[in-house]
Design goal:
Elements: E1 7-12, E2 19-25, E3 31-35, H1 37-41, H2 50-72, E4 79-91, E5 94-107, H3 113-126, H4 128-133, E6 138-145
Parallel strand pairs: 5-6
Antiparallel strand pairs: 1-2, 2-3, 4-5
Helix pairs in contact: 2-3
């Protein structure tokens, strides 16, 4: 059975001076999040952006994919800390999401640094959000074990 997720947004005005709100997401996890063009291209000033939401989605998806890959290899992570840095840039006269750089630090007992990096790369390629943006957005992962 396919999972469908929803979000409702309202926008008023033109692009540079207008503003909007992510009014509601179907899960009810958050609502009433302000968005503006400036929050995408300048300073966020307490507002979010589609790219920030993409970064959150990519980091969460990747953490799940990596956790699954570790488990399939016989390892359980004590902790994975993942950051996704999504770059929104003016490329060839148009704005686009140019890259999503993942950084993961983990505590995984009994796992070598080399195996951690290998499984981290595989998770980058196996994460469904990576799959959705792959080929259009540069993807990278920097992985390291802690302590």
């Amino acid at each position: 059975m396919a999972a469908v997720r929803t979000a409702d947004v309202t926008w008023s005005g033109d692009l540079p001076s207008g503003s909007g709100t992510i009014d509601y997401v179907g899960s009810g996890a958050f609502s009433r999040m302000p968005v503006t063009w400036a929050s995408r291209t300048e300073r966020s000033d307490g507002r979010t952006s589609p790219e920030e939401l993409l970064a959150a989605a990519h980091a969460a998806c990747y953490a799940m994919a990596f956790s699954n890959g570790l488990a399939k290899a016989g390892h359980t992570a004590e902790q994975l800390s993942v950051r996704a840095a999504v770059t929104f840039d003016n490329v060839d006269g148009g704005w686009k999401v140019a890259s999503s750089a993942l950084t993961v630090k983990g505590r995984v007992p009994g796992l070598s640094d080399e195996e951690f990096v290998k499984l981290a790369e595989a998770a980058k390629d196996g994460c469904p959000i990576s799959g959705a943006i792959k080929g259009n957005v540069a993807l990278s992962v920097d992985a390291s074990l802690e302590g």
